[in-house]
Write a structure and sequence with these properties.
Length: 137
């Protein structure tokens, strides 16, 4: 048995206000930390109650070691939705789907039973990240 847990995961944003509004107002996460200013903001969100893994929404090319060519590649991949993804889970997939779709999120896939044994749906967040939500048993 290990005492190591997933604490944070990172998702890029290209518009901190749009990402904040999506994850706070549409998904229903709480804001745990918001640092920086303008496009250089790191916004930590997660399920209400302060428990569980946090998602840090970050400027994708803020690392000084990222070259200009890499920045362009990251921007292109984000625009296509192939740069980053996140899988969430809920006890009521249909209600979560309806709430998030009603909030204006880009629907990629309505709830469906997958051949590999899960029921899920998919959206793209404002930065193009793939957000899949699975039904918990």
């Amino acid at each position: 048995m290990t005492d190591i847990a997933v604490h944070q995961t990172f998702l890029p944003h290209d518009d901190p206000e749009a990402s904040l509004a999506f994850y706070r107002d549409t998904v229903g996460f709480e804001v745990r930390l918001d640092v920086g200013s303008g496009p250089m903001r790191w916004i930590t969100v997660g399920p209400p109650g302060g428990e569980g893994t946090s998602v840090v929404l970050h400027p994708p090319a803020a690392n000084p070691g990222v070259t200009e060519e890499e920045r362009r590649t990251i921007a292109e991949m984000m625009a296509k939705g192939t740069y980053a993804s996140l899988i969430l889970a809920t006890k009521d997939l249909d209600a979560a789907f309806e709430r998030i779709a009603a909030g204006g999120a880009e629907v990629v896939q309505e709830p469906v039973d997958q051949p590999y044994g899960v029921r899920d749906c998919a959206f793209r967040d404002p930065a193009g990240n793939m957000l899949r939500i699975q039904q918990l048993p």
